[in-house]
Amino acid sequence: MKIAIELEESDRHFICVIKSSNQEDYTDWLDGFEERMNKERRGFIIRGWAPQILILNHPVVEGVLTHCGWNSTLEAISAGVPLITWPMNGDQFFNEKLIVEVLQLGVSVGAKEGGWYFEERQLIEAETIKSMIERVVGEGFEGEAMRNRAKELKEKARAAMQEGGSSYADIRNLIGELMDRRNELLI
């Protein structure tokens, strides 16, 4: 709800993906929020699965709020999109350190402890979320530096996948090694 409040108060366009095993958990507040955003043609709410790679690679996407799962992290980096990090549990806190401190591709909302259940998670204030959004997509030097770094890493990731790139070579080597082992077993 706090994310929705800040999205509604901002003047930014957005896509909000709501994933829940029980969609009825969100019905009380989400329906009014969704109706207002549709009327203003500013926000789009997706309930359930979303085509994340397609969304991240759209040229108007300026940033993403992420739980720092490894797939989401790699998809955002490959798309050249800076991140607002909100880890929930497990390795997501380590992934956040990589994003924020090592790669300098994003900012943290400040979650320090997680949990598997909603009741165990740290509450993040709406004003903090708004501030992090502005740091990433705003006009300041910090946001511009993150966006430039994200574009640079996007190009490096793409180059690695092209013929002659490191990922391309590694996958060719893996396939070759697997073929050699299969052939050894057949002899």
TrEMBL record:
GO terms for molecular function: UDP-glucosyltransferase activity. InterPro entries: UDP_glucos_trans, UDP_glycos_trans_CS. The keyword Coiled coil does not apply. This is Glycosyltransferase. Pfam families: UDPGT. Transmembrane segments: none annotated. The keyword Zinc does not apply. Belongs to the UDP-glycosyltransferase family. PROSITE patterns: UDPGT (PS00375). It comes from the Eukaryota. PANTHER family: GLYCOSYLTRANSFERASE. Keywords: Glycosyltransferase, Transferase.
